[in-house]
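lol ok so funny story. i was supposed to be doing the assay writeup but got distracted and ended up predicting the structure for this chain instead. priorities right. anyway since i did it might as well share w the group, maybe its usefull for someone
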Amino acid sequence: MTKSKTVNESEPVVIKKYANRRLYNTETSSYITLDLLSQMTREGREFIVVDAKTGEDITHNVLTQIIMEEEQRGKNMLPVNFLRQLIAMYGDSMQSMVPQYLEASMDAFRKNQQQFQEAMKGAFGGGPLAEIAKRNMQMFEAAASAFGNGVPGMPGVTPPAGAPEGSKDEEINDLKAQLAALNAKIDKLS
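and the output, tada:
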């Protein structure tokens, strides 16, 4: 009987890296790319990468390579000053402490991010603030569609070809009335 693997299983997937730089996923018996390894990392999937010839664990090198490729694509998360400081730490007496510090910092950042997301869900999940947020979004969408593509960077819907010019004025007046009503509700809540 074979045991099916799940995403949350504790055993990491073994990836073999061959001399021709190809990566082989032993779980799916298929060749994969660094992009797929990056996606697995984002999904929280544990894996280790081993050199197919020597059996040496090269996970650190492959993860560093993924970061380098992401940085080259213009998705810069590592500021130049940070990289310089990191390089300067190599050979320093404090070098051994840096990995634990960075790991603890990232864990704290993740926890803060989760708490912020939960707080935002709680703030806008129900009650009067949720209604205000919903109406603000409706007004924003209405304003974006009223301005169309005329405002750079603002998402908008191009008005239908047969739409009369007067309808924009009416829509603006409606938005002003909605804004006044929202302001009155906010004043009541205060």
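The CA atoms of residues 104 and 163 lie 57 Å apart. The first helix runs from residue 34 to 42.
back to the writeup now i swear
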